[in-house]
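Dear colleague,

Thank you for sharing your sequence with our group. We've completed the structure prediction you requested, and as agreed, I am returning the results in plain text so they can be pasted directly into your records. Please verify that the sequence below matches your submission; if there's any discrepancy, let me know and we will rerun it promptly.
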Amino acid sequence: MKCRHCKSELKLSLINLGSAPPSNAYLSNEKLFSPEKWFPLQVLVCESCWLVQTEYFIKADELFDQEYSYFSSVSKSWLKHAEQYVTEINERFYFNNKSHIVEIASNDGYLLQYVKKLNIPCTGIEPTNSTAQAARKKGIEIVESFFNEKLAQKLVDKGKQADLIIANNVLAHVPDINDFVKGVSVLLKPNGIATFEFQHLLQLINKNQFDTIYHEHFSYLSLNTVQTIFKKNGLQIFDVEEYATHGGSLRVFARRSDNKVSQVSNGVINILKTELESGIMSINFYKK
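Please find the predicted structure tokens below.
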């Protein structure tokens, strides 16, 4: 297998968890008596760009199908996290009724419902029909599709460039991470902002969180590797925050690479340094 980002040959294994069925593919009564699909679950490490990634056996549209059963609004703590995010991001960057906010993997409208309350125009991008329908019932406009550069260009052509793009817990879920990030840079307005939340690889390993490894996570992300991927695909990171969600997550703030306004925060510098000092970009870190 070759690396999803830099195409280098993958040889280094982080962990092999044998085989498992897709975690959110709940079985109906009818399917209980049919054979169940199981797939190998092994995580490999690229020794060139240090992207940690699940071995490729299953396509995204098989995981995120029309019967997808993960509804974000079930979690009250996650709803609170989303509402707080909307309040804080708006206080920091001042969006209004002339702005356009896009959330990628908007699920059932768990977050954009709070954007609507502020009367800020918004669009959700969500490939799973079950959650998309739930979001539409909340009055949220949904583009029912997987996000990529091609879709981003279509939205731009329709005059739907974004002042803010939100991508919570989706960067790890895309098989073609370069296409996804490039799409974000295309969809952003010249002065637009994108935020990404994802589980921090350093926390996963230090806390032995093997139970957060599953097929939907195509990638396991460090800030150093994300910075490398962003630079190649037209984005620059200017700030980062740490959160306790999902066992320890990062919220990364990025702008287009042609936007030279933002200075890099001390938070970015400190986390990059902490990762390097841990050895996260060395073979021995993963072997031990």
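Summary note from our side: Residues 80 and 204 are 23 Å apart (CA to CA).

Kind regards,
the structure core
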